[in-house]
Amino acid sequence: MAEFSLIDRYFKTAASAQVDLGIGDDSAIVSPPVGEQLVICTDTLVAGRHFPLSTSAHAIGWKSVAVNLSDLAAMGATPHSILLALSLPQVDDAWLEGFSQGLFDCCAPYNVQLIGGDTTQSPHLTISVTALGWIPTAQGITRSGAQVGDYVVVSGQIGDAAFALQHLGHPLQQRLDYPTPRCELGQSLRGLASSMIDISDGLAQDLGHILKASGVGATLSLDQLPLDPALQVLAPEQRWQYALAGGDDYELCFTLSKDNYQRLCQLNPTTPFTIIGSIQAEFGLRLEYQGQPQSLPLSGYQHFA
Ligand code: ADP
Ligand code: MG
Fold first, then answer.
1. Is the minimum distance from the CB of 23 to ligand 1 under 6 angstroms?
2. What is the pLDDT of residue 13?
């Protein structure tokens, strides 16, 4: 199949009111809303590296969008559109059917449009998605604003995906294959969170980025980690390893003052969230269990290990 018929068949969608010019020309044209800034990110998934080779085409399509919408959520942005750069070893219709369906299934609930991309042949299946979103000017939530005394909070449950990777076929594989980008929660944290990051490489490492960028430290209470029942029954070191150093969670980790935490509770977001610690002036990440300091050998996901 020629590149163009492949694009027409699987990826061309009707232009929406939000997009001035979508797929089909040399570039797409979009008009940013007045008073808002463009927020833009890109993330690549390589077969066998970022997902097991056994992953379904539908899940790969979903996840390639979800990980990018998660990055937008972590800034507090409203997602708008994506571009897709697809490198395929061969044209496999069944695979493309599943992949494009998964991609659009993840776009639909967030009103995200596919507005362009590139399609090439390559020995390795590689999917790069670029996502665009909007944030009211100067309201983007960065990693650098955590303040001494703030709570450290995470959304959802952590460690599920890392556990599932070691237990393929377990019901938690749904969390590995179909992460939920926390777009609504991210947006409701505008003006409330002092810093935010999405957890892709493990909580300890990703919270570490906030601490470094903000010039502060934190203490986490291991008793408070929101864990699935399947992890709660594991030996403590094992469950903490999944939760703190596993990765692929795509939950939000954010900091906010006590007053803003109360405001967030009043907003009553649909996504659950849990206080897991607090920010202190003393640098570094400290762990406590039942009020006692704990030391754990932790490492997050290393991209060049
Ligand atoms: P060019 O050669 O000018 O880069 P292409 O022939 O690669 O253009 O692409 C033609 C049109 O199809 C462009 O609008 C491009 O954005 C879009 N496109 C190409 N591949 C994809 C894809 N995998 N998903 C979505 N749109 C795509
Ligand atoms: Mg091209």
1. yes
2. 81
Dist. CA 3 → ligand 2 center (Å): 8
Model pLDDT for residues 291-304, shown as the tens digit of each residue: 999 998 776 676 66
Ligand 1 atom having least distance to the Cα of 119: 20
Residue 24 lies in a domain: yes
The CATH number that applies at residue 175 is 3.90.650.10
Q: How far is the CA of 121 from the centre of ligand 2 (A)?
A: 11
Distance from residue 119's CA to the centre of ligand 2 (Å): 6
What is the tally of structural domains in the chain? 2
Report the pLDDT value the prediction gives residue 68, as an integer from 0 to 100: 98
What residue numbers bound the domain in which 9 lies? 3-136
| Average pLDDT along the chain, 305 residues, taken 10 residues at a time | 86 80 94 96 95 96 98 98 97 97 97 96 96 98 98 98 97 98 98 98 97 98 98 96 96 98 98 98 97 83 67
Give pLDDT, residue 18: 78
Domain membership flag for residue 39 = yes
In a domain, 298, yes or no: no
In a domain, 143, yes or no: no
Please say whether the beta carbons of 57 and 96 come within 8 A: yes
User: At residue 124, what are phi and psi to the nearest 5 degrees?
Assistant: -110, 130
Which residue of 81, 97, 104, 119 sits with most ligand 1 atoms within 8 Å of its CB, as the best mutation to test the pocket? 119
Same domain as 123, residue 41: yes
Name every residue whose Cβ is closer than 8 Å to that of residue 209 and which is 6 or more positions away in sequence. Answer: 143, 197
Site to probe by mutation for ligand 1, drawn from 5, 19, 118, 126 as the one with most ligand atoms within 8 Å of Cβ, is: 118
